[in-house]
Automatic annotation (TrEMBL):
Domain of life: Bacteria
Domain 1-deoxy-D-xylulose 5-phosphate reductoisomerase N-terminal: 6-133
Keyword Iron on entry: no
Protein source organism: Hymenobacter volaticus
Positions of Mn(2+) binding: 151, 153, 222
Cofactor: Mg(2+); Mn(2+)
Entry similarity comment: Belongs to the DXR family.
Name of the featured protein: 1-deoxy-D-xylulose 5-phosphate reductoisomerase
Residues reported in the UniProt entry to bind 1-deoxy-D-xylulose 5-phosphate: 126, 152-153, 177, 200, 213, 218-219, 222
Organismal lineage: Bacteria, Pseudomonadati, Bacteroidota, Cytophagia, Cytophagales
Stretches assigned to the DXP reductoisomerase C-terminal domain: 262-378
Sorted UniProt keywords: Isoprene biosynthesis, Magnesium, Manganese, Metal-binding, NADP, Oxidoreductase
């Protein structure tokens, strides 16, 4: 199976750059076929010079000329720009696996294209499964591709399920760090600042997922992601707060046995596992020692203070296009919070309001998801304009 040719979408982000560290450390096993960035042309150029992919995509079309000029001496690398180009390269025959490391709804169409082209997917972009989990899992079955989670919790569960193919899952338990505001009341959350929200205790990640982690929307998105990845009923998914982020998640089987996967919080491990599956590749990542963690603790998540978690469970229960609405509204709300336009608690207010306004569709098509995403964004933007 090696060397595997990797199309890395979102190569300039937190997951993207760590994925390149994994590729660098395993240069006989992985090669890079595609790199993409949204606007960070400088880093994209630097990466392209090092990894010499067949194609690079810069999302922001105004930066096309700069990338093209910088890579003029490298004719083997084609330079493309724009949203449609990402979807086009995702389906090209020169890659074996597509690592979706872009943030947000933008992952949906490239992922669909990659599956339809028969590629395995290493999925970091959880929003794709939140938006269109039913459609994506149907496509994965139809095109018989692999869908390997990169999200650490889902990678943990995926690893625990190896060898358990005949054994039904009773439930899964997703662990949550609780983020920087664990233990705070609603009144206290009303006062928190963007700078505080951007400081995650255990993980160094992109801005959007860092805010989602502080608001527990990230765990809500992960609950929906898990439903589709592992084919679960809603009542089979539990969340427990585990502030040390050492136990990455657990599976409980019908005999009551629990399996967990443990390790230091480092995304390189789940990235490498997803790219290398079914092989475990040697790695020099720092090892976990119990001596450094004499106490691993657990508590209930507070769904009243952190309303997003309750909203995500509700949206999952309503199914249809409701999770797509949840995701779109959250993306706009988080962006507004990052521009200091709304407070921390207003993010969940905007999401809740939007969920009650968008027309419900029980069996959405791909086009329905695209339309739902647009409608939800418009509704939240209109609300914001009135603040
Ligand atoms: P970052 O913000 O660090 O990186 C995002 C990447 O996507 C960058 O390469 C960025 O380009 C690109 N990008 C941004 N907007 C768009 C767009 N509209 N279309 C295409 N590409 C775009 O995010 P993370 O790496 O933190 O997260 C990526 C995904 O992985 C998210 O879905 C997140 O939920 C998931 N994830 C991340 C974890 C982590 O530890 N970071 C853990 C688990 C899951 P540019 O740099 O030019 O802006
Ligand atoms: Mg996670």
């Amino acid at each position: 199976v090696f060397p595997k040719r990797v199309a890395l979408l979102g190569s300039t982000g937190s997951i993207g750059t760590q994925a390149l560290d994994v590729v660098r450390a395993n240069s006989t096993r992985f090669t890079i076929a595609v790199l993409s960035a949204h606007s960070n042309a400088e880093l994209l150029i630097q990466q392209a010079r090092e990894f010499r992919p067949a194609a690079v995509v810069i999302g922001d079309e105004t930066k096309y000329a700069a990338v093209k000029t910088a890579l003029a001496g490298q004719p083997e690398t084609e330079v493309l720009a724009g949203v449609a180009a990402l979807t086009e390269v995702a389906g090209r025959p020169d890659s074996d696996i597509v690592l979706t490391a872009m943030v947000g709804y933008a992952g949906l169409l490239p992922t669909v294209a990659a599956i339809r082209a028969g590629k395995d997917i290493a999925l970091a972009n959880k929003e794709t499964l939140v938006v269109a989990g039913q459609l994506i899992t149907q496509l994965v079955q139809e095109y018989k591709v692999g869908l390997y989670p990169v999200d650490s919790e889902h990678s943990a569960i995926f690893q625990c399920l190896v060898g358990e193919e005949r054994n039904p899952i009773e439930k899964i338990i997703l662990t949550a760090s609780g983020g920087p505001f664990r233990g705070r009341t609603r009144e206290q959350l009303a006062e928190v600042t963007k700078a505080q929200a951007l400081k995650h205790p255990n993980w160094d990640m992109g801005a959007k997922i860092t805010i989602d982690s502080a608001s527990l929307m990230n765990k809500g998105l992960e609950v929906i992601e898990a439903k589709w990845l592992f084919g679960l009923r809603d009542d089979q998914i539990d969340v427990v707060v585990h502030p040390q982020s050492i136990i990455h998640s657990l599976v409980q089987f019908e005999d009551g046995s629990l399996k967990a996967q443990l390790g230091l919080p480092d995304m390189k491990l789940p990235i490498q596992y997803a790219l290398g599956y079914p092989h475990r590749l040697p790695a020099s990542f720092p090892r976990f020692s119990f001596l450094d963690y004499p106490q691993l603790t657990f508590e209930q998540p507070d769904k009243t203070a952190f309303r997003n978690l309750a909203l995500a469970f509700d949206a999952m229960g309503r199914a249809g296009n409701a999770p797509c609405v949840l995701n779109a509204a959250n993306e706009i709300a988080v962006a507004a919070f990052l521009r200091d336009e709304v407070g921390f608690l207003q993010m969940s207010e905007l999401v809740e309001d939007c969920l009650s306004r968008v027309s419900y569709l029980a069996e959405p098509s791909l086009d329905d998801y695209v339309q739902t995403d647009k409608e939800a964004r418009r509704i939240v933007q209109e609300r914001l304009a009135r603040y």
